[in-house]
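Objective 1.3, modelling of assemblies. Example input:
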Amino acid sequence: MKPFVLIALVAVNLSAYSQESEITERIIALEKAALERWMNGDVYGYLELYAEDVTYFDPMLEKRLDGLKQLTALYEPWQGKIKASGYEMIAPEVQISEKTAVLTFNLKSVVGDKSYEWNCTEVYRKEKGGEWKIIHSHWSCTKPDLK
Amino acid sequence: MKPFVLIALVAVNLSAYSQESEITERIIALEKAALERWMNGDVYGYLELYAEDVTYFDPMLEKRLDGLKQLTALYEPWQGKIKASGYEMIAPEVQISEKTAVLTFNLKSVVGDKSYEWNCTEVYRKEKGGEWKIIHSHWSCTKPDLK
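Predicted structure (tokens):
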């Protein structure tokens, strides 16, 4: 292979790698910003990130919620009511395929005298305007202590 | 707008719609086939569907599992040991963006004298050869009865 072809290929790969890192950083930053607001009682950080067609699971629900309207009705009563004394996002991982980025992480949080452990999946989609929005969210308890 | 432009636009929309339905049906069929094998003790239905870079949550784990090798080690000891007497996939929904399809559903299953309710997320990615593979899976208990 001629050197300039090799250099061109390395450059293309480096550019793809750098684009992936940039998206990874961007997605984690979006999630951390919404999480920070959530842990301080502001549910609108997440509500502003969800797409209109978002689907959603959490362990308090009997079935999946569909759409931003349902999710807004679920979240709004919590506005101003949550205050975490600490939380940690553990091992965030972003899997990117074109305009979709799947963020997964474990989360530890402390609210009052209780600590919680979570599994979290957030599927982000790049919208036409270039913004990333969450189209699917799944929160569950890590290894729940069942009755 | 001239009639032939309108007809062309309607045709393009119908074609996109029909492609989406086709992908939706394909994804649900893949999941149902793997689920049917799982419920009859065969863990390889899912193992054959997972991509090498799959990430995975379930309620028995202390944290996310990463990669097919870890998931194979988790599943193989279960080979031949599960026999459900009944199960039902409830309200499957597929959100498609280019080469990614996010399948979500609730599941009820009966194994022995116990019944289980699940929330499930499966993120499928269309691979270069045209096959759909699961790159992320999140299983959790629906409204777990916590201690």
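Chain B has a mean pLDDT of 93.
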